[in-house]
Structure formats: structure tokens, C-alpha cells
Amino acid sequence: MQVEVTKKLFTVADYYQMAEAGILRPEDRVELIDGEIIQVSPIGDRHAGNVNRLTHLFAASFSGRAVLSVQNPIQLNNYTEPEPDIVLLKPRVDYYASKKVWAHDALLIVEVADTTLRYDRDIKVPRYSAAGIPEVWIENLSDNELLVYRNPTGETYAVSITLHRGDSVSPVAFPDVVFRIEELLV
Predict the structure, then answer these.
(1) How far apart are alpha carbons 9 and 144 in whole angstroms?
(2) Least confident stretch, 3-7, 114-118, 147-151
(3) For residue 167, what are the contacts with CB-CB under 8 A and spacing of at least 6?
(4) Are 57 and 166 in contact, with CB atoms under 8 Å apart?
């Protein structure tokens, strides 16, 4: 007799109940992806420096035009809630204090990848696309390049561009704001 094995997938509500019960602690570096709790890598110095730099640049560039969310959760569906490094959100007077952040609130997601490129590109980007996130950037620190994904179509993006030092980029939502790639990568 063969026994069929199935996984117990957790919902976002389950995930928060585990945190409230102390099963998941504030110092745990985890994300909920497709109902599974994924332990993510610790943040290294260069990664942290790039997140700090982006926070500074984006705060100055998008003040009053978007809400800047740094390493906070964004719910993509009932089973997936990653914590991207940077999210530009549609403006709200309350800065999302009274409303959970969902995929439809996002204008741009930025992931900083020093050791997590494969995870960010192969796991998170398809889920961002499926959720309808209009644009995702990955700072690939190993190769000093910016990977730009635009126009979600199912689990892929119709546009995929790799930019290097000397190139420039503007978010689709803010074409008047231009960044040189060397400004974005520390």
C-alpha cells in the first residue's frame, strides 16, 4: 500500500498566527513563498549599503509622489508574502498604516542581490509578475549590473533589460526621474 504525501501549505493568516504565537520570532529572517516558509540569507555589508543608498536616493526623488517601503512585507496572494528590499507604493495619506500592502499597491520593487540572485530572479520575479507588479529591478552586486523587468505577462515579464555602469534608467511610473546605474550600485 502506497501512502500519498502532501505538504501543508500555510496561508498568510497562518504565517501571522505563528508569529503571534512565538513560533516565528522577530529576528527570524523568513518569507512566505507559495505557502512555504523560506529562510533567507543574512544581510551583508554591501547589501545593506546598497539598500541604504537606494533609500536615500528614492526618498529624495519620490518625496510626495510615492510611499517608500524598505524591507517590509507585500502580500501577493493568500500564500505568498515576500519582504523585498525596496518598494515604491502608490501614495496614501496614512502611509499604509490602516491598510495592508498588496501587489496592486506597488509601482516598483527593487531586490538587492549579493548572494541571492538566483532566488530573487528565479523564485521571486515570476511571482511578482504573476501578481501584476508593473516593474522589478534586481541589483546584481556580483556583476555590478541592474536587471530590469517590465510589463508582467503571467509568470514572466515581456521586457527584460540588463544595464551596466554608464547606462541610465527611469522607473516606468516616473519617467521624469533618471538614475545613472553607478548611482544605484555601491
Answers:
(1) 36
(2) 3-7
(3) 146, 180, 181
(4) no
